[in-house]
Amino acid sequence: MPANRMLVTALLLASLPAALPAAAAPALPAYREIRDWIVACDNTAECEALGAQEEGNGDILFRLRSQPGPDGGLFFSIESALPIRMETMRLDGKPVLVDLTQWEHRSEDGNTGVSSSDAVAIRELLTAIRNGNRLGFNSGDKETSGSLSGLSAALLLIDEAQGRLDTATALLRRGRQAADRVPAPRPPAELRPAAAAPRPLNAAEQKRLIAAVRESQAGVLAGQECAVEAEDSHDQATPLTATEALVFIDCWHGAYQFSSLLFRVPMAAPERAQLVSLTLPLRIQDRERVIDAFTNADYAPEHGLLFHSAKGRGLADCGESAAWVFDGRQFQLSDYHYLGSCRGGNPGEWLRLWRSNRSP
């Protein structure tokens, strides 16, 4: 199946509704699409929620970031292409009576908005609006608004993921337990690339390895419906170790990206090439994510880093990106961002589900 089609299928599957657990903390990382809100909590329990409707049904993008731990900070922004001011804010047509002194107005790249990093002010606003339907602002002779459908469930998921339920720092289910009952942030994965970069491959070596893989793996390429002929391809070969190479066989071209199959290839016996398939150490909407077609991919042997980035559509308001570290034996996930629903947000601002510390 072509890579672009595979990505779209994965995005559609991930957008299916999934039931939220009532009380038990969700496994991390966690990703949920809950009506008009999307929540992602990464492997350290850092969470971000986006509130946005399908294109044409809303003019506002809500963005909430919550740091893990007892002292974890908050950030909340309301973004629009139209000028908005907090003084004109209405919840289902009625004024919202909250303290506005901790909110800043800003304008950047044609978008306007308001934002705050004051935890008290953010919790006050969330408490005031979480049971409403729409939050709107007057902008001259126009009104811009956004949906709050799913906000309460999104806040509950963040509270559960960060262990905040019934504590003073909870976003939804606040209680009397002290903030120090909240678990400390989970440490990110510690990754170290292979000790030394392998020597570069010359042009003749690259050509030999690519030709050998195309010949020996012809059945695999046909089975995967690879549609790009060698003379029209972006095939590449790059060293992985002193004895192995990575070979990218270009299979599918789209309007704005191309995708390849990736092979680990013994340089002395390239006919024994092995197809690379990487299972992510996470689930999206309770579904395993396996990447076996690499889009706009590249490998940097001097850093041991493999990259993949696939847009869900040309606007890049949905898709996924990943990076892996090669540790000398296998690829370890280093970073992963994902947004399964295209809702007209800023290009490439996909939600983080995995982070790591990389040693040089």
Give an overview in words.
The chain has 360 residues and is α+β, with helices and mostly antiparallel strands. It has 2 domains: 157 residues, Invasion associated locus B (IalB) protein (Immunoglobulin-like, Sandwich), CATH 2.60.40; 168 residues, no CATH class. Helix content is 15%, strand content 37%. The strands form 6 sheets. A 7-stranded antiparallel sheet has the order 1-2-3-4-5-9-8. Strands 13, 14, 15, 16 and 19 form a 5-stranded antiparallel sheet that branches. A 5-stranded antiparallel sheet has the order 20-21-22-23-24, covered by helices on one side. A hairpin with an 8-residue loop joins strand 3 and strand 4. The longest helix has 14 residues. The two termini are 37 Å apart.
As a percent range, the share of strand residues is: 35-45%
> Could you tell me the radius of gyration in angstroms?
23 Å
Helix content: 10-25%
The assigned structural class equals: alpha+beta
- The count of helical stretches stands at 5
Distance between the termini: 37 Å
Task: Give the ordered list of helices and strands.
Answer: HEEEEEEEEEHEEHEHHEEEEEEEEEEEEE
Please describe the biggest sheet, giving its number of strands, its sense, and whether it closes into a barrel. 7 strands, antiparallel
Protein name: DUF1176 domain-containing protein
Signal peptide: 1-24
Region (Disordered): 176-198
Pfam family, one: DUF1176
